[in-house]
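debug: dumping io for the single-chain case to check the tokenizer round-trip. Nothing else runs in this session.
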Amino acid sequence: MSAALDDLDRKILSELQLDAEQSLDEIARKVGSSKTPVWNRIRRMKEQGVISRQTVILDAEALGLEACFFVLIRTSEHEADWQNTFLRALRERPEVLEAHRLAGDIDYILKVRVKNARAYDQFYQALISEVKIYNVTALLSMEEIKSTTILPV
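debug: decoded output
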């Protein structure tokens, strides 16, 4: 269920997505409001779950995590025990930035960030030692064309 947001809420969200470190005064000035209503709206949107958390975005390459793999997984297992083991394994692996269950020929896609191909192989070996997987295809991203956390509000 989506929250009811008005234009001012959307402006506030856009500003927070650009820079959550801005002061309430800065945000209020940019969205054409005052500090208290902006604070109240941010608090309400947090309570509603529209704003789930605030964080810092790190540069993966600056940290030596230069390889980004998209991992396509097919499984012949669809029982609850297998799925629980698989999901636990993914959640415990810090290399997995995203994991999605898909409709179609591929069951899951993972976004994995590691130092290099050797590090990916270590990740892969650890994963298949924990969970039975029918087929895995790893695709190395040659160039990141667009990456954003900014949602179109």
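debug: round-trip ok. The longest strand covers residues 67-74.
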